[in-house]
Amino acid sequence: MRTYLGVDGGGSKTRFLLIDEAGKVLASHNEGPAYYLETGLEALRAMLARGIAHTLKQGGTAATDLTFAFLGLPGYGEDRSLLSTLDAAPCAVLPAGRYRCGNDVVCGWAGALAGGDGINIVAGTGSIAYGEYAGRSARAGGWGELFSDEGSAYWLAREGLRLFSRMSDGRSVRGVLYERVRLHFALQEDLDLCAAVYGKSVMQRSQFAQLSKVVAEAASAGDAQARALFAQAAAELTDIVDAVRARLRVPGEMQLPVSYSGSLFQLRDLLLAPLEASLASRSRKYSFVAARLPPDAGAALHAAKLGGAPLAAGSVAALEAQLRP
User: Fold this and answer.
1) Which of 66, 67, 249, 278 could make an SS bond with 2 (beta carbons 3.0 to 4.6 A apart)?
2) Hey, which bits of 111-240 come out as E strands?
């Protein structure tokens, strides 16, 4: 029986999933972040070794018996000089030639569309889109939090704090967000925010992104300016989808499937619904669909494809049945 390991690396969590060719889940496991720019390469290697070993042991599968594995890593491909280093990251626990590394955006696409033509937009700590059509592949977004990642949790956190500063100065009308930020950081004076952000570990990418929850709370509580940030996020994410479609050279009349993954889409009213409306307003035709499978399952499906034996439709359906909420 062939077995496949999928690893979906994220900015805050890494998921491991072991399946067989019939689509049966043999083991699953979670570990910490895989963003090497934040954790360091040694920490990445240790985390992958620990997670892979635990998952294979739980699934009763020896590394030498594993058919193939795919590891999606955040930041992969964005520094050419590190490609060989990242490719070698799992070599302590996986035999050479039995795995391949790639960007984690592939996991989201492969899971959401079960490896079919279309685009998947990701909005979690960062944002990025990836799609395939007629044998072509393309990505857009994902340039990093300093000048990109539009529509992501990090972007929302940054824009939310920018709005707070404007509210504090009087450049914008003070809304619910103003008091929510003061409460979150227990500020005695508004300028104390500088020490709270610049002088603390909150400046780490994944931790800073968590501040998007404060913006979401304010928007849900009726802050129109905070809610407008989510509308802007939906428009930014739509632009990213449109860019991928153009690079894939999809015919204009084609109604292309678009799915989504990432923690930010749990905010259905604030982000998911506006994104669907934004896509529907564009001249290009899209079919907005829910993800069929989570990214870790997508990584396992992609492993089977890379291993030369893609899962049959019945096996994919069996996997869906097991992972359905």
Assistant:
1) 67
2) 118-123, 127-133, 136-141
